[in-house]
Each structure stands twice: as structure tokens, then as C-alpha cells.
Design goal:
The chain is of the alpha/beta class. It contains 12 helices and 10 strands. It has 2 domains: 218 residues, Rossmann fold (3-Layer(aba) Sandwich), CATH 3.40.50; 65 residues, Rossmann fold (3-Layer(aba) Sandwich). Strand 4, helix 4 and strand 5 form a beta-alpha-beta unit. The mean pLDDT is 96.
Length: 323
């Protein structure tokens, strides 16, 4: 068996992640969480990484011994390092800022290498200069199998996700069109997606980073397909943090802020459906869950230091869910 054939076997889709019923105070409306924390590397980025590697192998850009490079500082690096290890490939993650042992550890434990670069925006040029294949998760937002898997499990009225590279909303939107389903993007403070979508400006830029890990961008990324998105819901960061805590309160999952952003937007849709007397199913994506989030999004001192007052949002979540 050739290396390419073995690689494609490694990069085949895994078992589906679970759907979790989430309480709402809206007769005839069902809210489900699609739990991507069940992926082998604990996040939705696992699907992105698999799709990027698979496409690179199919295109002949990654072969046996190719060094794989990415510019990223989060879950994407962990997922890519995991696949690189299984494929026997060297992996280098170019991360923004000064060396952060906590961020580097997970990648290095999987056999990857981390290089830290300042200023943060220099990571892309630094990654391109390294000899090897630059995966370029933002420039090559490869479609992944989430949409096929989800629509085989349930036929929702709405699916809600955040947007980082734009790959997830694009993959969902492409399939949703023929399923009678609509796609909503939940967008945190400072992100370019809501104003860019609203104003129909494909290169809109805010120039400000998101405080919600994994989603929200200072510019609209090439992988974001505005034509496949039915609604973009702006979500205050305090609401994202409160909703992340509420997911943990209900399910026990220590989710990241992006899951909270999606839940808050999903509950906005549920509220609209209730007010209009509509029924249906809303699916909200859980992007990841990890113990490290307990020291940030789930920590009162951290929230206070960021100037995030979550009390009113927690009360509103209790009203909307009944728990």
C-alpha cells in the first residue's frame, strides 16, 4: 500500500459527534447542541485539520516526509499536530506573541514544533518562509464533513455557528440550501463578519482582535461565504461568556467562549420563533470543551479583569431556558 493510500485511510471521517437536547421555554421548538468536543482532539478544528490535510494529499502538495506548517495559536495547531503525527510528518506551528508554555505544550506533546513570532500579524509571512507545505487555514478553508453528518442526524430549521476561517458556515450553507434549513453566524465583539455581511462589504476590516477564542476576525476572511449565510447575529462578549457558563451548568461541559456565542445567538432565534408561534429545531455548535477554559471564561476574576459583567446575561439565560 502506498503512503498516499495509507494517508487517505488515516484522514477518513470518524464516527458522528452527539447531539444534546438543551432546555428552552418555547413550545414546539427544540434546541440541540452539536458536541464537537467529542472529536479526538477535543474541538471542531479537528474536522478543519482533516479536510486541509486530505485536500493537500489529494492535490499532491503533501507527500511522505513533507514538513507541514501553519500560522495559528489555538485548537487548530493541536488538531493539525495530531494528524501530522499519525501521518508521520514533521509539523511546525507558527504562533503569535512570546513563548507561551501552556499553548506550546499540547502541540509539542504530539511531536510538533512551536515557533513564536512578534508582532502577531507577522505569523503568516513567517510561516510562508518555512520550507514545507503551508496549510493556510484561512486562505484554503477546505470544506469538511460536518454538514453531511449533521443533516443525516436531524433536519433542523436553523443551524448556528461562529466564524473563524468561514469554512464551517460555508460547508453548512452549501448543503442547507437544499434541506430547507437556514444558517446563522454568531459574531463576537470587534469582529468584521457582522458589519461586513450587513453592509455587503466582502473585505470589511475592523482592525481589532476578537476576545473569543477561535471565532471573530479583524477582517472578513476569504473562506467566508456571505451568500451562503442567512443571518449574522452580533453577540456581546459578556453574553458569550455567560452562555458558556450556562452550557457548563446544564451539561457539565467546560466549553470555550465560542460555544457560548453560538448558544446566545441560537436562543435569540428560539425567542423569535416563539414570538411568531413557529415550531422547529435549532442546532447550535459546541466548538470545544477543555479544562483550561475553567481559568478563563468560567472564572469570575478573569471576567472582571476583562471588564465583562455577566450577571444580567446569566439571569436572562435562566429565563430563556428555565434552568
Amino acid at each position: 500500500m502506498s503512503w498516499n493510500t495509507r494517508a487517505l485511510d488515516v484522514l477518513a471521517a470518524g464516527p458522528p459527534t452527539r447531539l444534546i437536547d438543551f432546555p428552552v421555554q418555547a413550545p414546539g421548538v427544540r434546541l440541540l447542541l452539536k458536541d464537537e468536543s467529542g472529536q479526538p482532539t477535543g474541538s471542531l478544528r479537528h474536522r478543519h485539520a482533516r479536510a486541509l490535510f486530505r485536500q493537500a494529499v489529494l492535490d499532491g502538495l503533501v507527500t511522505q516526509g513533507t514538513t507541514v506548517v501553519e500560522a495559528t495559536g489555538g485548537n487548530a495547531a493541536v488538531a493539525q499536530a495530531w494528524f501530522a503525527r499519525r501521518l508521520g510528518l514533521p509539523y511546525i506551528a507558527v504562533m503569535p506573541g512570546r513563548r507561551d508554555q501552556a499553548r506550546a505544550r499540547a502541540v509539542e506533546e504530539l511531536g510538533g514544533e512551536c515557533r513564536f513570532v512578534t508582532p502577531p500579524l507577522a505569523i503568516y509571512d513567517a510561516a510562508r518562509r518555512i520550507e514545507g507545505h503551508f496549510l493556510d487555514q484561512f486562505g484554503r478553508a477546505a470544506p469538511h464533513d460536518l454538514a453531511d453528518e449533521l443533516f443525516a442526524q436531524v433536519r433542523p430549521t436553523w443551524v448556528v455557528t461562529g466564524a473563524g476561517t468561514g469554512a464551517t458556515s460555508a460547508a453548512l450553507g452549501a448543503l442547507a440550501r437544499g434541506m430547507g434549513c437556514r444558517v446563522a453566524v454568531a459574531d463576537p465583539d470587534n469582529s468584521a463578519y457582522f458589519p461586513g455581511w450587513t453592509l455587503d462589504v466582502p473585505d470589511y476590516s475592523t482592525g481589532m482582535p476578537s476576545r473569543i477564542e477561535g471565532i471573530g476576525r479583524p477582517r472578513v476572511e476569504p473562506g467566508f461565504r456571505a451568500d451562503l449565510v442567512d443571518l449574522v447575529v452580533p453577540v456581546p462578549d459578556a453574553a458569550s461568556v455567560a452562555a458558556a457558563r450556562h452550557i457548563r451548568h446544564v451539561t457539565g461541559l467546560p466549553v470555550g467562549g465560542s460555544s457560548g456565542t453560538a448558544l446566545w445567538a441560537a436562543l435569540e432565534l428560539v425567542e423569535r420563533m416563539r414570538a411568531r408561534g413557529e415550531g422547529g429545531t435549532v442546532v447550535s455548535l459546541v466548538g470545544d470543551a477543555a479544562e483550561r477554559h475553567l481559568a478563563t471564561y468560567h472564572d469570575d476574576a478573569w471576567a472582571a479583569a476583562k471588564g465583562l459583567d455577566v450577571a444580567a446575561h446569566l439571569a436572562e439565560l435562566g429565563r430563556r431556558t428555565g434552568v
